[in-house]
Amino acid sequence: MKGIWVIKWPLIIFLVGFLVRLVGAFWKIRHWPMGDELIIIGYMICGIAVIWGIIILATMKKPIE
Predict the structure, then answer these.
(1) In sequence order, which ranges of the chain are alpha helices (DSSP H)?
(2) pLDDT tens string 50-59
């Protein structure tokens, strides 16, 4: 069993999406342009990462004991 390393890349991509959302929220608070778009892109990146992680976990085979 590889443990948490199986979902390393979906987790990294999720964190990148979270940072994009955080920057978008900051830009929205400061009334700078593209704040709304950054928030939407961040949510899309996080959604893709979550779906990818679920697919990886669902298709894992049970280890032979």
Answers:
(1) 8-29, 35-58
(2) 999 999 989 9
